């Protein structure tokens, strides 16, 4: 008897699990889930950033050539990494939202883009702040800075399209196409660091390398930045959901019941 009913029981549980995940793929279902996730992500982000910055600013040895100013690497590099990773995630979400007509994916892309722009700008600003005392210039036009600046303008263009276009369908399509074409800037950015002789490597005296503790700090700060991005995106996504779904019955009922 147990052998006969076991497949049926498993099928019921799989069906319930599928329905639960399907529920959270809709804006109405994801809205309360986002609020529940925010405190946990925020606590994890503070822990990771605090640990990483402590290791980088107080434990890592002083660079023999650049002295204390070299510690800006623990902000500059994670910000650049996270800006590129968030761009890929935003482009993927925008592409899914447009191609598959998944509303929540398109909303998530719109919510994530400003945080990606913030990290791209932080990478550029910290690079300028680092470059002036070490290399004598705030800005030099090499391939690395070209690609990072292009990434910043792609973020700005995507955000501007959603502000300028009232038709969300057209905004989703135009924004997705812009981001998907701009994905080519990511391998160019990585190749500029790994292959070409960039401004940084060309003018930096002495060998370039990281100890295990320094790499741990970079990874911890990067993880903290990613977790913070999740917090900021979820907070913004809740606002985007309410704005885009303002004509729906559930949002109207939510507003009526709000204190």
What letter string, H or E per element, gives the SSE order? HHHHHHHHHH
Largest sheet entry: none
* First-to-last CA distance: 54 Å
Number of strands: 0
What number of domains? 1
Beta strand %: under 5%
Oligomer: single chain
What is the overall pLDDT average? 79
Instruction: Note poorly predicted spans.
Output: 1-6, 8-18, 201-208
**Gyration radius, in Å:** 22 Å
Q: What class would the helix/strand composition place it in?
A: mainly alpha
What general form does the structure show? globular
Bin the helical content: over 70%
Counted by DSSP, the helix tally is 10
What does the model show?
By secondary structure, the protein is mainly α. It has one domain. It has 10 helices and no strands. The chain has helices spanning 2-24, 27-59, 73-99, 103-135, 143-164, 168-182, 185-194, 199-203, 212-244, 249-257. Helix 2 (27-59) runs antiparallel to helix 9 (212-244), helix 3 (73-99) packs across helix 6 and helix 3 packs parallel to helix 9 (212-244). The model is unreliable at 1-6, 8-18 and 201-208 (pLDDT under 50).
Short account of what is shown:
The protein has 259 residues and is mostly helical. The protein has ten helices and no strands. The protein has one domain.
